[in-house]
Predict the 3D structure of the following.
Amino acid sequence: MPLTSEQRQRVLEAISIGRLLLDAPVKMYTGYGVGRPCDGCKDAISAQDVEYEANFSDGGSYFFHLGCAGLWDVERRRLSVVEDARMIREQAQLTRQQARLTAKESAQLRDEADVISRESEVARERARQVKRGEQPGK
């Protein structure tokens, strides 16, 4: 049976307020419902409905209607991708900032190397002058 718009809204609300966690289950089982409430929409999962049981590593479980399980899984995956993209953007921004700092430091080191090179050339020229018996700087 497809989700009603009310059921869909309740599942999305449960996700947004954190009542449904977005962890990946370690196992999923299916069977027919036994009347327990769906953890997504809170409606009973009747004996005519397919019931999904999501088991987690901490021992917890969620029970869903077929449609609620599908919506929860899609949203869980979508939000995971959104979070991954946010983290990648933040890492890229940090990398750009580090690259700017490295470029600035590199430019400063090039400038210092140019000064040292000019000073070295002046010192070599003075040494040549002394070797020839001339007064340095003339």
Q: What stands out?
A: The chain has a mean pLDDT of 91.
